[in-house]
Specification:
The protein is about 40% helix and about 20% strand. It is α/β, with parallel strands linked by helices. About 35% of the residues are buried.
């Protein structure tokens, strides 16, 4: 029997029959939730448009903090801060490691980072894509749920894949809010995967989300949680209504849990008074179902609490198989199985261990839950692609089939699990169970119900069976009957001499006839005799058998020797070669012929067969042997064992009894020949079987190679999907940026066209790069002049332009002057250096305005300009 590696921590003992309340409370070291809601927005391909619509409709003083998680390309700079800043007045910035979240602020995940929330601070880490797929939305949602509990809000927007589905389950379990974009999403993969969980509180267009969200957080019961103090009869009426509609009794759940769920549902329904909500429940069956789902919290995942399942795999399951080595049958019960992940996890671990054994075992797992919807989902055996974060690649390849909407449990695992609706508090339990896995149910029940459930689970176990609890649960007052095996994993073992006592015993025993029958067949500890006395008697029996009893062999149905008594060396000889305990092969040929005939008759007639006067040759002497073969009596009339007695007798002349065996009889020789043929056929069959086994091993090796290749292809496919999402996000940003650049270019073209300013762009070699319509009109430029040297043009202004352009290129300083090209034609000329950000090449921008009319209207204006320039020191 396995023991815990280290003793439990010492604590104040609970009184007899008392369950310590704090034994069922999770770790309280977490920081308190922030005084405001934190909203996580998960988006992928097509998510930019949804995010812009959302923040455009969200006021800047909502009092919430927003964290945007996207699949970003690690090789390109994200333009998301710049793009979102144009849609909201809230500050938008990329998250910094250790930054504390503040209300009315938008935080963005940086590229190549994993973002989580811990004690209200944003933590950044490098994403390790070698060991797990890139699921940043799941990672943040899970940390948000753990850190902020009921003040966590998860929003799933447009995107591909199933990232976010696993995190939504964590948000729901923590009591947070879940919103999902409806069919208007540009890419529906991520929203559809989230909707398939059945955990969405709202399914809305992105434009409607802000208004609904503001109404929810400003609900009086959510703005000041814990203020709901309804009369007891109201709670009882709601519990009675739920029991009438669904058959589920929630009155035994902790009142604090029920009140928190009521507050949440009233906030979602926008109802402030409990009486009005009760009336709403009476009118809305859908709301009753939603409230029940919130109270039951049917949320779980594969291999939840990895250290606990590691202990189960390494310590408990091998012991269960060792105990079942005789009957080859294993029974497991998973009450409160929710959507089935835990039941399938145990089935996979059982199958993994069975693969290492040569013999086949019948494994049956009974998974039950009071929630019919959860049972229906579990029976389907289809789970989203996000389970890749919990299930290793090799287990996915062996026990799941990839489908369009996720992964489906393979048939041979699905057949091992029987799903059924059951109320563990009312319906009869299963019996003679090797393992009961009841995790995270007790923490939601009142103390009396905790005690009742533990008694039922302990009754269901066989002596030596194991109980697998959640990491925040303890056995309470069942510690006398359940001993810890792994404290950290909360795995306990039923003591072999334990039994139910008290009112729980009477209650369980009265549940059903099958239970009473199982209880009547329970093993009872018999009084053990004195071991020393047993050893003495065993020695005496062995001596008497050796001295006075004939030689005897006990054979199984394969004629193999199980036990021998007397002097077996007188009749059998161990031959060289591979060891073989078949009596017919160990005996000499003349004795083997009579043995085979007697054994065949004894098995066929199921009665003793005697032969006297068998002649055998031993030590070069003829001897007579008496033979008796007798079926060994056993319960149930089945006699697979035989007793073979051999005794050497004296010669009796020619006298021969009726039952004597005559080896010279033709029929006997024929039988002997047939038996030899049968033996050769049997040996050939064994050889063929060995060859088949060898071929099977080779096929198994080939299959494993194919599995490995499939895993590599699957990993490559996941990487390609992730890269595709990143490229889609980047493409959305570039499309939006291109649209903005197009608008800006149009604005610039219209400005240059309407400003009546001639502009020419030339490079450092004085080649024309671009010019405006006004410049074309003044200098008579044509489209084909682009790329020509400025000095090639024929115009009175060109000489001055060429000279001044070279001056600016040399000095790098701008020039502004008036130039008279022809009598009465004046231009205000500006020549400035042209530089691009991040580039080393230079050019010149030439602008000129015809100021002839101004010159004629104010003759001294240009003169004043020239004199002012001359007075200004260079």
């Amino acid at each position: 029997m396995k023991r815990a590696k280290k003793p439990p921590r010492k604590s104040k003992p609970a009184a007899r029959g008392e369950v310590k309340a704090d034994s069922f409370i999770s770790d309280g070291n977490a920081a308190p939730a922030l005084p405001f809601f934190v909203v996580g927005l998960g988006a992928s391909a097509g998510g930019l448009e949804a995010l812009e619509i959302f923040f455009e409709a969200m006021p800047s003083d909502s009092g919430m903090a927003f964290v945007v998680i996207q699949h970003l390309s690690p090789d390109h700079k994200s333009m998301m801060p710049e793009l979102l800043s144009r849609k909201t007045r809230m500050p938008v910035s990329q998250s910094k490691d250790g930054e504390k979240v503040a209300p009315n602020h938008v935080y963005l995940i940086p590229p190549k980072k994993c973002l989580t929330l811990f004690h209200g601070k944003l933590l950044l880490a490098e994403w390790n894509t070698e060991n797990s797929p890139n699921l940043p939305v799941d990672a943040f949602f899970s940390s948000l749920a753990e850190d902020q509990s009921t003040r966590a809000i998860a929003i799933a927007l447009s995107g591909t894949g199933s990232d976010g589905t696993r995190g939504i389950r964590a948000i729901k379990e923590a009591g947070g809010l879940v919103m999902i974009q409806d069919e208007g999403a540009k890419f529906s993969g991520m929203p559809h995967s989230a909707i398939a969980t059945g955990l969405a509180d709202y399914i809305l267009p992105a434009s409607d989300m802000p208004d609904v969200l503001l109404k929810f957080i400003r609900h009086p019961l959510l703005a000041k949680p814990g203020e709901l103090h309804p009369p007891d009869n109201t709670i009882q009426k709601i519990a009675a209504l739920i029991r009438t509609r669904t058959g589920i009794d929630v009155s035994g759940y902790k009142q604090s849990t029920v009140l928190r769920r009521l507050e949440r549902r009233m906030g979602i329904s926008q109802i402030e008074k409990m009486g009005n909500y009760l009336e709403y429940l009476r009118q809305s069956p859908r709301e009753v179902s939603a409230l029940v789902n919130d109270v039951l919290i049917s949320v779980t995942k594969f291999f939840r609490d990895r250290h606990a399942f590691k202990a189960l795999r390494e310590e408990i399951i091998p012991d269960i198989f060792a105990f079942a080595s005789q009957e080859k049958s294993i029974r497991v019960w998973v009450p409160a199985c929710a959507t089935g992940e835990e039941a399938y996890s145990i089935a996979i671990l059982m199958q993994e261990h069975a693969r290492t054994l040569e013999e086949e075992y019948e494994i049956k797992i009974f998974a039950t839950d009071v929630n019919q919807e959860a049972i229906r989902f579990a029976s389907g055996g289809i789970y989203p692609a996000s389970i890749t974060a919990d299930v290793s690649i090799d287990l996915l390849a062996r026990y799941f089939t990839k489908e369009e909407n996720g992964y489906r449990i393979r048939r041979h695992i699905r057949d091992q699990v029987v799903f059924a609706r059951q109320n563990v508090l009312k319906d009869p339990p299963f019996t003679r169970v090797d393992l009961v896995s009841c995790r995270n149910l007790l923490i939601y029940l009142q103390v009396e119900l905790q005690r009742k459930v533990l008694s039922i689970l302990q009754f269901a176990l066989r002596p030596g069976g194991y109980l697998f609890l959640g990491t925040s649960e303890t056995p309470g007052d069942q510690q006398d009957t359940l001993q810890p095996v792994n404290l950290k994993g909360r795995i306990l073992q039923k003591r072999g001499d334990s039994a139910l006592a008290g009112p729980e015993m009477a209650q369980v025993a009265q549940m059903s006839a099958p239970v009473r029958e199982a209880l009547a067949l329970a093993p009872i500890n018999a009084e053990r005799g004195n071991q020393l006395e047993d050893k003495v008697w065993n020695a005496i029996y062995a001596r008497l058998i050796t001295e006075f009893a004939p030689t005897c062999f006990v054979l199984n149905k394969k004629n193999e020797i199980l036990y021998s008594f007397g002097e077996p060396k007188k009749f059998i000889t161990l031959r060289a070669g591979r060891a073989n305990l078949n009596l017919l092969k160990l005996a000499s040929r003349d004795l083997s012929l009579g043995l085979s005939t007697a054994i065949r008759r004894a098995r066929k007639q199921n009665e003793a067969v005697r032969y006297r006067g068998l002649k055998i040759e031993r030590d070069h002497k003829k001897r007579l042997v008496s033979l008796k073969v007798e079926p060994l009596p056993a319960d149930g009339g089945d006699s697979p064992l035989l007793l073979v007695f051999l005794e050497e007798t004296k010669k009796r002349g020619h006298e021969q009894a009726k039952e004597d065996f005559d080896p010279s009889d033709p029929s006997t020789k024929r039988i002997s020949d047939l038996e030899e043929d049968l033996q050769r056929t049997h040996e050939n069959l064994e050889t063929a079987t060995q060859l088949q086994a060898k071929s099977g091993e080779e096929l198994q090796a080939t299959n494993e190679e194919l599995i490995a290749a499939n895993e590599e292809l699957q990993s490559s496919n996941e990487e390609l999907e992730s890269i595709n999402e990143e490229l889609a996000t980047l493409n959305s940003e570039y499309e939006r940026k291109n649209d903005e650049l197009l608008v800006a270019n149009n604005d610039l073209d219209n400005f240059l066209r309407t400003a009546q300013i001639g502009t020419i762009f030339v490079d450092e070699k004085l080649h024309i790069r671009k010019f405006t319509p006004v410049a074309a009109q003044e200098i008579n430029l044509m489209p084909q002049d682009t790329g020509r040297a400025l000095t090639d043009l024929a115009h009175p202004l060109i000489d001055t332009l060429s000279r001044e352009v070279r001056r600016v290129l040399t000095s790098g300083e701008a020039v502004e002057k008036t130039v008279e090209t022809r009598p009465g034609i004046w231009y205000l000329l500006r020549i400035s250096p042209y530089r691009r950000e991040g580039a080393t090449d230079q050019g010149i921008v030439v602008t000129f305005v015809n100021v002839s009319a101004l010159k004629r209207g104010q003759p001294d204006f240009l003169g004043r300009v020239e004199r002012k320039k001359k007075q200004t020191p260079q």
